[in-house]
Write a structure and sequence with these properties.
The structure is a homodimer of 512-residue chains.
Chain A: E1 7-9, E2 35-36, E3 41-46, H1 53-56, E4 59-65, E5 68-73, E6 75-76, E7 81-86, E8 92-100, E9 109-115, E10 125-128, E11 132-135, E12 145-147, H2 156-167, E13 173-177, E14 197-198, E15 201-202, H3 209-224, E16 228-234, H4 247-261, E17 267-272, H5 283-296, E18 303-304, E19 322-325, H6 332-339, E20 343-347, E21 351-352, H7 363-374, E22 379-380, E23 384-385, H8 394-397, H9 405-421, E24 430-431, E25 438-440, E26 446-450, E27 458-462, E28 469-475, E29 480-488, E30 491-495, E31 502-508
Parallel strand pairs in A: 2-9, 12-13, 13-16, 16-17, 17-18, 19-20, 20-22, 21-23
Antiparallel strand pairs in A: 1-3, 3-7, 4-5, 4-8, 6-7, 8-9, 10-11, 14-15, 24-25, 25-26, 26-31, 27-30, 28-29, 28-31
Chain lengths: 512, 512
Amino acid sequence: MNRRDLIKLSSCAVAAASAPVFAAPPTSPEPGAAVSRWDVLELTFAGPSAGNPFLDVSLSATFRQINRALTVEGFYDGNGTYKIRFMPDAPGAWSWSTTSNAPQLHGRSGAFQCVAPAAGNRGPVSVRDGYHFSYADSSPYVECGTTCYAWAFQPETTQRQTLATLAASPFNKLRMCLFPKWYQHNHKEPPQYPFPRSGDVNDYSIFNTAYFQHFDRLIAALLQINVQADLILFHPYDKWGYQAMPAAVDDRYLRYVIARFSAYRNVWWSLANEFDLMKSKTTADWDRYARILGEYDAFDRLRSIHYSHYQYEYARGWCTHAGIQDSRMQLGAQWRSDWGKPVVFDECRYEGNIASRWGNISGDAMTRRFWQAAAQGCYCGHGETYLDPDDILWWSHGGVLHGSSPAKIAFLRRLLEETIAIGPGPIGFTNFADDPMAARRANGSVLFYYFDEHQPAEGTFALPDGKTYTAEYIDTLALTRTPLPGDYSGNAQVKLPGTPWGSLWFREKGLA
Amino acid sequence: MNRRDLIKLSSCAVAAASAPVFAAPPTSPEPGAAVSRWDVLELTFAGPSAGNPFLDVSLSATFRQINRALTVEGFYDGNGTYKIRFMPDAPGAWSWSTTSNAPQLHGRSGAFQCVAPAAGNRGPVSVRDGYHFSYADSSPYVECGTTCYAWAFQPETTQRQTLATLAASPFNKLRMCLFPKWYQHNHKEPPQYPFPRSGDVNDYSIFNTAYFQHFDRLIAALLQINVQADLILFHPYDKWGYQAMPAAVDDRYLRYVIARFSAYRNVWWSLANEFDLMKSKTTADWDRYARILGEYDAFDRLRSIHYSHYQYEYARGWCTHAGIQDSRMQLGAQWRSDWGKPVVFDECRYEGNIASRWGNISGDAMTRRFWQAAAQGCYCGHGETYLDPDDILWWSHGGVLHGSSPAKIAFLRRLLEETIAIGPGPIGFTNFADDPMAARRANGSVLFYYFDEHQPAEGTFALPDGKTYTAEYIDTLALTRTPLPGDYSGNAQVKLPGTPWGSLWFREKGLA
């Protein structure tokens, strides 16, 4: 390895307590420096700049540890610079070597030590217990997402504001587009384009590296504040041509963003926003995109797709979870069972007051959907669309939040996390007892009922045999928690306040 | 006609302003006295009392006016007394003659004059404009029902209270069972039985006339306060055997109650409450019951059936309307279109606070369902199940109302009635414009949008060409009405308060 080819540690180690800022430019530590587990290792090489490196130069590297070998593609970052990014997922000694059709880049090799992660770095999120998620260190991840489709294309002050808002919010996943958006409230040209553009003509043979470098910074900044970046690869709200590129360009684009972003441990892939509105694409196209993700994403990031009118068949193997758009919350438990994987209602309409029905439900209605999802062992997604004098709507632009639901969603998220923390067992909840709004941990340590628009003044609740529980009544909108007197077991008779939007929680005694 | 065989006018002429009381005993006017249109004419005859008149004696009468002939069955009312009831539906001279296997009852004949109805007597309700209802005098009937399944079996003080409550309520239809009810909160023997009963054995060969006379009084009392009596003929909540009688008994029972009650202009028939829970009955049974109604009910009263889990095929010809149990309000418009008849959500859960989920939705949730139905051109049904120290729950026993929804439902009913009154045209609303919560009169004179959980601060509403409208914003829960400034036409841009549970009404100028 040449001294000129530096191993650089990415700057995206988690600094949860720090103010959200864009990631600092990569620094250049000494060769052989240690890399934290689940951080990004970035190898930088000088290589050919003549011709069109995007088309002409192939580069990949294989990373080895004992009997494991993971191969990732490198990418051209402009100015004769090539990069390879890798996330080591196991501590210890790793080695690497490159393959390229450019002699200058071929056969390069090196080694590094993967060391324990910094505090707060829990690794990537993956599916656990069938229907839920956890970090790689086994700590639970209670998915709680929001949406700022086009925040990447807003003024930098707005982007910084978005990060500050997110850091203070309950949201730990952000749906965001990699392509700019053209739609109501989104009728501005982006500051830059993913491909060089002359008039209405895109030069699809070249990636605008500055455009993608900006996403490097955004993803790293999200990682700093513990937010998963749910990257939307294609979408129909487009005036520039990106929704209908030649198939070879689609594929090259996918391999480029996989090479570029997949080593960030907070990346999720969403093949599309509203795939079924993209009339130029066929099922074969979506199948091919899914295969490319499977083949080139060495880190097996979470993968899904989002629809408008025609529900995707989420039972298909490539999806790690269902990232749906639907308002029929009551179907969550059934879908979960049908598909055998986590169900995330990524979009179920947004809190707001715009004219469009998808963007004007009340804050309480938004909160209700989070509870309805949780009570079925599913997850929900937030978005916000309040009219704004500067036309900055959170759902697309980011900025600040105006609505009443985030505080109420935060309350729910804390309840779920607190519950998982009370003892060992499965990390998530499962719908049970033929009640569409009742959930329990599989070991029976916690059960809760969400009463929704119902207001029972009493009830009988069948608790698992052999356990004794305490009970708590929660007003999901007033955000009050009221312990109920006594212990509960068997077919427990409970007196309740008889008010709507309540939730009743049973926790096993001795664990709480 | 003998002097002993009197034509008696029923006492059920409408006296809308009077306090609700049980109908007075039938009086005995002179033979040949005039009968008001749509009132009950009751013929009384002395006849055989030996043997079992219920089984042994057949009696019917044919009523003729010019070229029309309507035949009704008579019924034995005990103590050697036979009755024939008839509702003349057209003014002028009528004649009648009887047929019987008892010589004493055969070949009797007479005549009477049908005269204009008293004020407030608008005749029976039937289907109009395909999906709506009107009285026979063409005045609209905005269906607004409630439920007191077993009020007939409560103490008389409670029954009187029920009538007083109904008279002061918005409800103009009452679902009620002809058989007593055995179920939660309903574990008392009725004061009397429809058939003589010894221990657990019913003598199905004899009708307890006192039992059925009581229903005469209740139906007449409901008529006095302008409430339709939706009589439920069979139901599964039974410990006495009435849910599984021999087929011949079912049929005789149906013919008896048709003979006895069908002349009351406020009678509707519901073949069952939750027919699909009556495991001893087959589709062939229900078909036979429907045929009996069609054959013996000369007045063609409104007919439907109510289900629990398995939706009835309401497209079937015998049903005049769909009287459904369902909470999926958003499907109303589609069902209406599928079945081609009025859709009444007779049961969509009840306002209350009992443990059962069907009986504990909030008053606002109940109100919401009425609005959701109305905005689809459908109708909704109320019920109330608040825990009570004396265990008197409106849904079954009647008594008094405790909930918050009746006043809000009254507000909606007034709006609908006021709207129909503003000018000629179809009496009801039709869902339109691909908006699940928008309705209009077919002539475009009135349109309204129900925003439900949505809270738009602005909107564009496509109004019919060539008309100018005023607009009003209604808070469906706060019960406020706010005229919006200006006139509206074409694609009307409207600023709205941005609060949930609102409704926007456009009324054609010059009509309002």
